[in-house]
């Protein structure tokens, strides 16, 4: 699945670009250059790029990017597993379509593992650098264009809920369609086989969809416990979500 591979690569590259943007942010306020008659605001020659992560130190930056990777990968995992389940359901027993659905699920899980490991490494590095008060849930941006990565996660989770609802509706349709094929098969082996395949893959798709939803919740609870702390430097206080 070249498309699925590209999605995971884009997420990784996007995270790297956020790191470069944050590192380019000046640590202090811009100097007061004063104004002139031609330039009352005194902004000529000053070019600043807002820090989307609102991170001013390396450890906070690494921890924030790491938590972003973990949260975004969980949402994307659910979406692509549901998409793979949809491909299985509508395969009609076609070996090519079944294989396509399996590959979608396979690459979704593989990409999730890669991003999860990358996020965990980021949190570990932040801990080694001595950051003691970086919450597992992720650092919130302040006075930045992106105020909270949870908003992006929420959008993706809403998409997954819509996909789950559509998948459930389609599963009912496919089950009814398989029953229709059984009724009008008139003993034809081909029609009976098609009906069996349709029913089987509809049930498999429903099982995969339910599994994806449950896994998403379990992973979210595992990587973002209600109360957690990253120990380091001078010790830290528990941070409540």
Helix content: 55-70%
> Which regions contain 5 or more consecutive residues with pLDDT less than 50?
19-31, 131-146, 227-241
Number of helices: 5
Shape: elongated
State the major sheet.
2 strands, antiparallel
The spatial strand order of the largest sheet comes to 1-2
Radius of gyration: 24 Å
Overall pLDDT confidence: 65
Can you tell me the number of structural domains? 1
**Secondary structural class:** mainly alpha
From N to C, what is the helix and strand string? HHHHHEE
What is the tally of beta strands?
Answer: 2
User: Beta-sheet strand percentage?
Assistant: under 5%
Task: Report the span from N to C terminus.
Answer: 37 Å
Task: Characterize the structure shown.
It is built from five helices and two strands, in the order αααααββ. Helix 1 packs parallel to helix 3 and helix 2 (58-89) runs parallel beside helix 4 (149-183). Helix content is 66%, strand content 2%. Residues 19-31, 131-146 and 227-241 have low confidence and may be disordered. The chain is elongated and about 70 Å long. It has helices at residues 2-24, 58-89, 95-128, 149-183, 189-223, and strands at 227-228, 239-240. It has one domain (2-15, 51-231). The protein has 241 residues and is mainly alpha-helical.
Brief write-up:
The protein has 241 residues and is mostly helical.
Q: In terms of topology, how is this protein built?
A:
Elements: H1 2-24, H2 58-89, H3 95-128, H4 149-183, H5 189-223, E1 227-228, E2 239-240
Antiparallel strand pairs: 1-2
Helix pairs in contact: 1-2, 1-3, 2-3, 2-4, 2-5, 4-5
